[in-house]
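Hi both,

Apologies for the delay on this - the queue was longer than expected. I finally got the zinc ion-bound model through. Below you'll find the protein sequence and the ligand SMILES exactly as submitted, and right after that the structure tokens for the full complex including the ligand.
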Amino acid sequence: MGSLNTFSKLVAVTLLTLSHSSFATVGEAASEAIGFSYPNGARYAISLSFDDARSSQVDVGLPILDKHGVKGTFYINPQFAKERLAGWKAAVKNGHELGNHTSSHLCTGNFEWLRKDNLGLEQVDLAWLKRDIESTTQFMKQQLEVTPRSFAYPCGNTFVGRGVEVQSYVPLVAELFKTGRTWLDETGNNPTYTDFAQLAGNRMDGMSFSEIKEMLDLLKEENKWIILAGHDVGEKGLYTVDKEALNALIVYLKDPKNGYWLATVDEVATYIEKHR
Ligand SMILES: [Zn+2]
């Protein structure tokens, strides 16, 4: 009985120690998140990203970014990029980041206009998707002399297959790129917790500056890294970032008193990886 008693005491002490140390780890992680800081003492990080390589990004978006001397992240679809090849080459020279957005832009087949040969992501496998992603990387290397380090999931979808055969393609993206960004998320990225292979992305299409600012105020707590995502740039629309809103947003983000570090997705990911 005596030895059993000692044994149970030992178990109890061990459990207490274990639970204490795991609580301590959680506590440390939480306080680190609150204390995380970005270059120049910024409290939040933000990236401006644009999907598909639509021509209005070169014609309207890039001149706005260049006027303010800030850098964006542009996720390339070769078919769109071919329409403004010289413009995209100039963007690379000006220090903007170009990422991969697949060649097929395949999403769930629920999007009727995005099906390819009657296929949606429900009908393809990881090998199909890997070839599709790699063909965009090839295009970018050959035509734009850039090797992408970032990826954006078309429509934010991260799977192939259906039901019990569903597979995530997040591990494939993690293997091929430093970061992968999703779409229409409800949070920003917590520097301590976020997964670089499925970074949250928040919509900026169709919003006025005050609506974007209101959203940022809700998302920014705990030293978040917010990645805004848009499509066309011009007059505000369902898939168009309003050019006046973009201009006002950049002015706001560049003002140090607002606490933001504005940098490309790859720059912020590299910084967080080093410091978290
Ligand atoms: Zn897209």
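Main takeaway for now: The chain has two domains: 1-35, 40-275.

I'll put the files on the shared drive as well.

H.
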